[in-house]
Amino acid sequence: MDNMQSGKLTIECPFWLAPMAGYTDAAFRSICREFGGGLFYTEVAVAQGLVRGSKPSWHLLESLENEAPLAGHIYGSDPDVMARTAAMIEATGRFAAIDINAGCPVRKIVAKGAGAALIRTPEKIGEIIKAVCSAVTLPVLLKTRIGFDEGQSRIVEIAQAAEAAGASAIAIHGRYAVNHHSGAVDWDQIRTIKQQCRIPVLGNGGLFTAEDAVEKLQTYGVDGVLIARGAVGKPWIFEDVERIRNGETPRVRSLAERREIIERHLHRLVALKIKEGKCRRRSGFDADRGAALHFRCHLLNYLSGLSNWVDVRRSFGAIGSTADIMQAVDIVISRQPRED
């Protein structure tokens, strides 16, 4: 494995799990961690909510014991609030780094002047990083994009501001914010920033297979890559990338293994939903149903590549319990060709 020095933090593996709202909760991250990987990110949480002690906001930073190293991923536009929030996160003792979001293109976040809106003001990104660095001893990382509007790259200015302010590493999504997650990823711009920066630079975007991740790491000279949608339904991708780098062929998961992973993930999600229920003001929250509804997006990806399950997929709208989930899984598995 490679050792990446990121400020006070040394990461042994260059393949990191990117933050994804609605996906990278503690249940999913812990499943991915079973297969390796470097730094993992939490879902993004709003600094204003965290500093006010909002239980739902803090629930987004829930973690399990086997997840380290883990970065607390936050967004906001006020340097002071971001700094105070970062200090609170560090005080939990559960995190190895603080990550500043300057790339989320979701409209409600951008409307607050946060997330991808910060791309338009690199100096503001520098102010936030400087304030957070002064408030914590943990490494401070930045996750951003090459620009906001198509063809108007700001990544050189952003990287310069981040490095000057004390960031320990920068992760760059090679798409413009207006394109969200569609279109080509400009890895050439990411390589340019790597050549210009003294701090570690990681690339992100369009990595759907282990082969993609290894190829981008080796071709563009970055210090690491962030895997996002490529890990959904395939948490073993973190084992696969290491096998490929070692000249080995990734291991094909048997149907029984896939079922066990699904069931384990689902059980951890139920436990997480029980905790979420305690954060809600309304009583009567059904954790099992909540987990089942949440898990449907994962299930589609876990079953991807299997045959003869179109009718099962059409019935997903009727799923209302974890028992329903596992029944659907068993039906699909029963229809697959016999494994040797």
How would you sum up this structure, described in words?
The structure is a single chain. With 340 residues, the chain is of the alpha/beta class. It is built from 14 helices and 11 strands. The protein has helices spanning 26-33, 47-51, 55-59, 79-91, 107-110, 122-135, 155-165, 187-196, 210-220, 237-245, 255-279, 287-302, 310-314, 322-334, and strands at 4-6, 9-11, 15-17, 40-41, 45-46, 70-75, 97-102, 140-147, 169-176, 201-204, 224-227. The strands form 2 sheets. Strands 3, 4, 5, 6, 7, 8, 9, 10 and 11 form a 9-stranded parallel β-sheet that branches. A two-stranded antiparallel ribbon has the order 1-2. It starts with a strand and ends in a 6-residue tail after the last helix.
Distance between the termini: 33 Å
Domain tally: 2
CATH architecture of the largest domain: Alpha-Beta Barrel
CATH class identity of the largest domain: Alpha Beta
Count the E strands: 11
Major β-sheet annotation: 9 strands, parallel
Radius of gyration: 20 Å
SS field, number of helical segments: 14
Within CATH, the superfamily of the largest domain carries the name: Aldolase class I
Gross geometry:
globular
Uncertain segments are none
Structural category is alpha/beta
Helix proportion: 40-55%
Strand content: 5-15%
